[in-house]
Amino acid sequence: MIAVAGLAVHRHVDAGLPWGLVLALVTALFATTAAGILAGRVGAVVLAGGYAAVLVLTLSSRAEGDYLVAGDTLGYAFLLGALVALGIGVVATPRGARHTSPARRSDPRTLDP
C-alpha cells in the first residue's frame, strides 16, 4: 500500500519543489525502519521486498502501451530513490530490535535457592 501511495504522489510538484517525491521517499524509509524495529531485520527485508515487487510490476507496460512511472527525471528519481531508501531502512535496523512488552508489575518474582 505504501508503494502504491508513493506511485500516486511522486509526481506532485508545487512551486518547483517535488513534495510528492520527498513524501514518497521519506515514507518508504520510515516504514522500512519501523518494520525493522517491530519485527527485526526480517520484517524490514520483507517490507522492502514487497515494495520492490510493486516497483518491478510498475515497470512493465500496460495494455494501452503506457507506463505507471514516466521515463523522466521524477520517475527515475522515484525508482532509484525508493530503492536507496529501502536499503538504508534495512541496513539501519538495529541488531536485535524487536518490540517487546514490558514485564507486568503483578508478575510474581521468585528467587532460585
TrEMBL record:
Q: What's the superkingdom here?
A: Bacteria
Membrane-spanning regions, if any?
Answer: 16-35, 42-61, 73-92
Q: Which Pfam families match?
A: DUF6113 (PF19608)
The answer on whether this UniProt entry bears the keyword Transmembrane reads: yes
- Provide the alphabetized UniProt keywords: Membrane, Transmembrane, Transmembrane helix
Q: What is this protein called?
A: Uncharacterized protein
Which species expresses this protein natively? Answer: Mumia zhuanghuii
